[in-house]
Amino acid sequence: AQSVTQPDIHITVSEGASLELRCNYSYGATPYLFWYVQSPGQGLQLLLKYFSGDTLVQGIKGFEAEFKRSQSSFNLRKPSVHWSDAAEYFCAVGPTGGGNKLTFGTGTQLKVEL
Amino acid sequence: DTGVSQDPRHKITKRGQNVTFRCDPISEHNRLYWYRQTLGQGPEFLTYFQNEAQLEKSRLLSDRFSAERPKGSFSTLEIQRTEQGDSAMYLCASSLGGNGNQPQHFGDGTRLSIL
Prior knowledge:
The structure holds 2 protein chains of 2 kinds.
Chain A: E1 3-5, E2 10-14, E3 19-21, E4 24-26, E5 32-38, E6 44-50, E7 56-58, E8 64-68, E9 73-78, E10 87-94, E11 103-104, E12 108-113
Parallel strand pairs in A: 2-12
Antiparallel strand pairs in A: 1-4, 3-9, 5-6, 5-10, 7-8, 8-9, 10-11, 10-12
Chain B: E1 5-7, E2 10-13, E3 19-24, E4 31-37, E5 44-50, E6 53-57, E7 65-68, E8 75-79, E9 88-95, E10 105-106, E11 110-114
Parallel strand pairs in B: 2-11
Antiparallel strand pairs in B: 1-3, 3-8, 4-5, 4-9, 5-6, 7-8, 9-10, 9-11
């Protein structure tokens, strides 16, 4: 069965500092990978996705993520964090060849210090 | 693209009552998904539809839960005889069809509180 691990429950960074959120997945083949962001009381907004091809993918709001097959990782990065980036971030994996359900990690809560 | 719409945003009810939630997907999306999210957790898959057909149900979806998408457009999720453990955020998402390479777009959810 597929699974996703986000080892960091909470992360605090200073505004302007760089950010990396970790995500490791377990899946029998190369999955489809996603990062979503959730603000309090809101639904999830898609930041970026990886299906195939270039392992470095660009998303919205200046985020990027790198797929590393050898490490089963899909870490999210941003070079300079803004206070408005404070939110909860979820990594998700979806099955290839007949997508239906997404399996999410438990999320990483990002706090930004001014 | 008006986004995925869910109604109501909040529902407070007493244990044992029945509740129904509605989801209106993005109009051209033929796939619709329901997830449940409890505090401090990521969303967990409940069920999904392709057009009006319910193609997969999670073991989380007990016999007290039923979902419909009668005309392949909006969907409803009903919980009968609610229990304390049903308190959660219920999220709806929609996507185009395909082999999984179409991202799911989420609504803002319905937060259910059981007294």
